[in-house]
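Session log. Operator J.P. requested a structure for one protein chain; no other inputs attached. Running the standard single-chain path with token output.
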Amino acid sequence: MTVDKVQQIRNVDGVAAAFPGISLAAKPGDVGVVNFGVPDMIVSHDPASTRYQTLKTELSAGRDLNVSTGGEVVLGYSLAREFSKKIGDTIALPVKPKDAKPDFVQRDFKVVGLLAKTQTAPDNMAMVSLADAQYLLGAGLPEAIRGKIDPTTLASGIEVYGNPGVNLDQLADKINSAVPGVKAIKPTVIVNAFKSGGAVFTAITTGAALLALIIGGLAVINTMLMAVTERVREIGLKKAVGAHTRDIMLEVVTESTAIGLVGGLVGFGLGALVVTIADATTPPSQSSLFLITPTLVILAIGFSVVLGALAGIIPAFHAARLDPVTALRAA
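Structure written below.
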């Protein structure tokens, strides 16, 4: 589409801002495995759009683009890691494929900023100014039409932000009716696409978690029931000398909780070792597949402790209900 549509969209009631954008393949012709479905891209970036963006990115080094200065790039984490680039280095974009044609065009960009790791699409982005992206777009056009189209008038998309409180789906409909030649996509359509794409993965992980819950719980229950059976005389003796029912229950639940804690620590340690090895063997061009955070550590170990405590309730009731006389005779 042409960039003149941007001003028309900005004039629509309810629109806070609109920015033209261009996306290009950073590695044209690359048919290799992309980064878990996220290809390496060259995208235009306007620093003014940062204040509106929902997905906030941070710089780990350097600065943002200066729109009045051409030839600058802010690299995502994965691209910077793949090409071993740091602030002040130069990178030629797009990356020249092995079978490139003689008229393939690259441009040298100075790295002025590096994005912090996000584990999402920005890790695979090279952000340049709109003018630079338009230049690369024009250079990549088929030779037959390359000189007949002015790339400075083109945009591959427009990012639109609504005013606070505005219904964005209704705003999309308003843009479609007010501005000819554009197709505004409703936010709910994009969200639903993400949800449907992750539904299968969510179902698999949920099923695995439930299976682990059942197996782990039954294992702790079985272990504690066996322990209670083997310690019938001990329990009977404790009750005979004055131990209360709550004392016996507390002892059994404490032991099952300890089993859950030890199992959680061992299991988490093994899991952390596996994912660390997997991340270490990930190609430089790809983001790490797994991410271990303090919150995840607390949740994983806390879950195993709670599971152990709950699984010990049934054996605790069984132990607490033992008749001391019968228990002593059982030995």
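Operator note: The CA atoms of residues 103 and 143 lie 9 Å apart.
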